[in-house]
Design a protein that fits this description.
Strand order of the largest sheet: 3-9-2-10-11
Structural class: alpha/beta
Bound molecules: 2'-deoxycytidine-5'-monophosphate
Helix content: 40-55%
Radius of gyration: 18 Å
Number of domains: 1
CATH topology: Rossmann fold
CATH superfamily: P-loop containing nucleotide triphosphate hydrolases
Number of strands: 11
Strand content: 15-25%
């Protein structure tokens, strides 16, 4: 498996509208952070449960700091899609040995789409951004992400991407396994109902026909699978700071993180 790191060269700024203007204190903290991060590139690891808003939050931080944003879940989803298409996973079960031997045939790219202002995921040169977010991939991805060889390969690629720092990566094992020395580690959580509602709204907005209970069951099943798998289970790193965003807007989360980044960079 290879990873064409288009984003390493692009390093384009992704800006995210939070729908709320920052207050003066927040703005000045943000300006200070920009100055500090210009001199010192760091790694920000964001882990947590499914549908906690990790990617929205991580993207917004990366946009402000002009850092790379990597959605590690998209990588596991892309491998899953490949396996589904190749008949290596389905109702009949999982063909683990065949999946492992297929790994060299799976090329994952993240390519910036200037029209949408965001990176999109490509599998062997085809844009799969929409497909990998669908309910079918979501139903199988936990099985794929349990395979040790898949994880080893993903972690290797993720470390390569982060070699120059200046990166925000979100996932399940970023602070514990991928970047145990990350300067900032955040562990995100929110109630199951709130997460299911967010995911449901997202899928409906994308035109998918989904049932709320089905979405909720998928989230609960993925929590169980993520927390209980043998390799790299979802855990809060000892030095990660917990962010429960059940009742927080994106703007509030950004204010919270500005203070955190400012403190960490100032103290180090
Ligand atoms: O973040 P997400 O829901 O798109 O992730 C999809 C799946 O991939 C999720 O069920 C767990 C798995 N995953 C993982 O095992 N390790 C990561 N670093 C990221 C995602």
């Amino acid at each position: 498996m290879s990873f064409v790191c288009t984003l390493c060269t692009l390093r384009l700024k992704i800006s995210l509208k939070t729908g709320k203007k920052y207050n003066d204190k927040s703005r000045s903290t943000r300006e200070n952070i920009s100055k500090l991060t210009m001199n010192k590139k760091i790694i920000i690891a964001i882990d947590g449960y499914s549908s906690c808003g990790k990617s929205t939050f991580a993207k917004a931080i990366a946009g402000e700091l002009n850092y790379l944003y990597i959605d590690s879940g998209a990588m596991y989803r892309t491998v899953t899609l490949y396996c589904m298409r190749a008949g290596l996973i389905g109702k009949e079960g999982v063909r683990t040995a065949a999946i492992i031997s297929s790994l060299p045939d799976i090329n994952i790219n993240f390519i910036y789409n200037p029209d949408l202002g965001k990176y999109e995921t490509f599998l062997n040169s085809a844009n799969v951004e929409k497909e990998i977010r669908g309910i079918e991939v979501s139903a199988y991805v936990s099985r794929i992400s349990q395979i040790a060889e898949v994880r080893t390969r993903m972690v290797e690629l993720q470390r390569q991407i982060g070699i120059f720092k200046g990166i925000v990566m979100d996932g399940r094992d970023i602070g514990t396994v991928v970047f145990p020395d990350a300067e900032i580690k955040i562990f995100m959580t929110a109630s199951v109902d709130i997460r299911a509602k967010r995911r449901f709204d997202e899928l409906i907005a994308k035109g998918e026909k989904v049932d709320f209970e089905e979405v909720k069951i998928n989230i609960i099943a993925r929590d169980i699978a993520d927390e209980n798998r043998d390799i790299s289970p979802l855990r809060r790193a000892e030095d990660a700071i917990v962010l429960d965003n059940s009742r927080m807007t994106v703007a509030q989360q950004m204010e919270w993180v500005h203070d955190l980044i400012h403190r960490k960079l100032h103290d180090s």
